[in-house]
Design brief:
It is a single chain. This protein is mainly alpha-helical. Helices cover 96% and strands 0% of the residues. It has one domain (2-190). The radius of gyration is 50 Å and the shape is rod-shaped. 3% of the residues are buried.
Length: 191
């Protein structure tokens, strides 16, 4: 009874999950797009920071306080790089969260599949046992029939052998009788 209930629940899960899957898939796609946008924005910010540093370095070379200007440009570059890293890490964190959710979903599906297979196996076991029993009985009947036919063949062969032996004995007796008559006749004629 419990196996049937589980089977019914498992059969109804896809219909229920289909409605929720569409919304979940849309939300997942939005989150993946956001993660990709964050990572792309981080890459663009890194590129812009590098280009800005080069242009500021060239401008600093024309100034009076070159080192102070370069330090300010380097500090601004590092601030942009740190922000780019933060954005990239945020995007990676979103992707890792989605991967954890996907792994958890796969584990749920795997557990449901194990339950479904166990229910199927429990449902099939009596039928398979009955089929196995039927096959064993059929095999036993075939073997008994073969043994019966073999015994019948052996009896028939023994009867035919006995019949042949009797014929040979009768023939030998007739031949012996004819020989005895012939010998008698020959003895009578010789007298």
């Amino acid at each position: 009874m419990a196996a049937r209930l589980i089977a019914l629940l498992l059969c109804s899960l896809p219909a229920l999950a289909a409605a929720g899957d569409a919304a979940a898939d849309a939300e997942r796609a939005d989150r993946l797009d956001r993660a990709a946008a964050l990572k792309a924005g981080a890459a663009a910010r890194r590129h812009q920071a590098g280009a800005l540093l080069e242009s500021q370095q060239a401008a600093c070379a024309k100034r009076f306080q070159v080192n102070a200007c370069r330090d300010d440009a380097k500090a601004e570059y590092l601030e942009s790089i740190f922000e780019a890293r933060r954005l990239e890490n945020e995007g990676k964190a979103i992707e890792r969260e989605i991967q954890r959710e996907d792994a958890a979903q796969r584990e749920i599906e795997r557990a449901a599949e194990v339950e479904r297979r166990a229910a199927d196996r429990a449902e099939r076991e009596p039928r398979v046992a009955a089929e196995r029993q039927n096959a064993e009985e059929t095999t036993a009947r075939h073997l008994a029939e073969k043994e019966r036919k073999a015994a019948e063949g052996a009896r028939r062969k023994a009867a035919e052998a006995e019949k042949q032996r009797r014929k040979q004995a009768e023939h030998a007796a007739r031949v012996a009788e004819k020989k005895a008559r012939a010998e008698q006749k020959q003895q009578v004629e010789q007298k």
